[in-house]
Amino acid sequence: MTNERKSEITEWYEQHSDSIFRYILLMVRDHQQAEDLTQETFIKAFQYYDSFERKANGKTWLFRIAHNLTIDFIRKQKPLELLKELVFLGKNTSTLPEGMVEIRENSTELYHALGQLKGAYREVIILRKIREFSIQETGEILNWSQSKVKNTLSRALSALEKQLNKEGIIHEKN
Questions:
Q1: How distant is the alpha carbon of residue 150 from its chain centre?
Q2: For the chain, which residues make up each domain, given as ranges?
Q3: What's the CATH code, domain 85-166?
């Protein structure tokens, strides 16, 4: 079982470590801490491999571990540190839903505005729109129902739109 565990964790690391690192970095905004939490995610996955339910997706399970570790870390930080500007580690472009706007994900302004949102809003936007998890996967990672994911995402996108409008970054499409 240990060889199987090691083999699967190694495979997961090769497949998912970069995206887990970027997710954590978006949350903690500290490169070294994101590296440490990414490493800790895979250590926990190795330790708790036997509790992994095969009905779940390995990627979702890893992101759940990363999420929990990141939230624990964030809870220990000073509130002012949580408002630091986010750094770019995403894709080139993204379209926000409901035909609002198109905006480059590598925009410092977008990440600054995202950093101004409350934690739950920031998390759900990162998971659904930047990391592109499904509603079900996002719910599993955050331990939320699918309806809570949908409702929170809708509110989060409205709050993000208001923040981006407030900062003069976007213009609504006609």
A1: 16
A2: 2-79, 85-166
A3: 1.10.10.10
Closest CA to 142 of 159, 127, 157, 130: 127
Third-level CATH fold of 2-79: Rna Polymerase Sigma Factor; Chain: A (1.10.1740)
pLDDT, average across residues 79-94: 34
Both tokens of 138, joined, read 């996002």
Nearest to 88 by CA among 169, 26, 32: 26
- Report the distance separating Cα 127 and Cα 23, nearest Å: 8
Distance CA 106, CA 104 (A): 5
**Residue of 167, 72, 171, 174 whose CA lies nearest to 119:** 72
Global pTM reads 0.58
| pLDDT-wise least confident of 22-36, 83-97, 120-134 | 83-97
